[in-house]
Design brief:
With about 220 residues, the chain is mostly beta strands. It contains 2 helices and 10 strands. The protein has a single domain, classed as Beta Barrel (Porin).
Length: about 220
């Protein structure tokens, strides 16, 4: 985990060192800031947790397999659609993780790795600010697209499934064209559901749900 913290510091510290006193500039610069028609690029890194693939959904294992929590990284491209900062966002988000068998339910029970697993989200969505100030810009984010699920085994194929996300975040400007962005999202990915109950009028909801916390630097153009 230390290496991911080091990478984040490498991203944040240089931008902070080059930050200028843009808040003290004249009315023209303030007008440009609050009329946000800029494109944004945001490289980010974070941490993803949660998710289970059940035994009836794949022939890989004869048991349920949890998705191990691990680091993720990606990039957002923001395309302005309103001068108030609303943007269409295109996102690529990758997590390299493992399947595990969970544990027996007891305190400190060990878990066992069952194999490698990659998840990559390709989403398009809308970012909607709900307040603007020089100090912080909180926002809502929603997106949809596909998730590529890759067990990284030569004897199986990669699956592509519908995916969506909802989240909240905040942008903290450090100069007129750059800042820090933090975000928390929940991800949903559609998976095959259990239909083995012939007497039931419903299916068990066994889709993939994950949580994610990200931090990155955004740059305006």
């Amino acid at each position: 985990m230390r290496k991911y913290v080091f990478v984040l510091l490498l991203l944040i510290v240089p931008a902070s060192l080059f930050a200028q006193g843009w808040r003290d500039r004249g009315p023209r610069d303030r007008y440009r800031y609050f009329n946000d028609n800029s494109f944004e690029v945001t490289p980010f890194a974070g941490y993803t947790w949660g998710g289970t693939v059940y035994s009836g959904q794949t022939s890989l294992f004869n048991q349920d397999a949890d998705v191990a929590s691990s680091a993720n990284f990606g990039i957002n491209l923001g395309i302005p659609i309103q001068p108030n900062g609303m943007k269409v966002e295109l996102m690529i988000d990758h997590q390299s993780t493992d399947f595990t068998n969970g544990n027996g339910g007891g305190l400190f029970d060990p878990s066992h790795r069952l194999g490698n697993f990659d998840i990559t989200y390709y989403h398009a969505g809308i970012l909607v600010p709900f307040n603007q100030s020089y100090a912080a810009i909180p926002y809502f984010i929603g997106s949809a697209g596909v998730a590529t699920l890759d067990p990284r085994r030569s004897d199986v194929s990669t699956a592509t499934r519908f995916s969506a996300s909802l989240g909240v975040g905040v942008k903290v400007p450090i100069q007129s064209h750059a800042g820090i962005r933090g975000e928390i999202r929940g991800f949903y990915t559609s998976l095959p559901n259990d239909t083995t109950c012939l007497l039931c009028n419903y299916t068990y909801n066994r889709d993939l749900f994950q949580g994610q916390a990200n931090i990155g630097l955004y740059f305006k153009f």
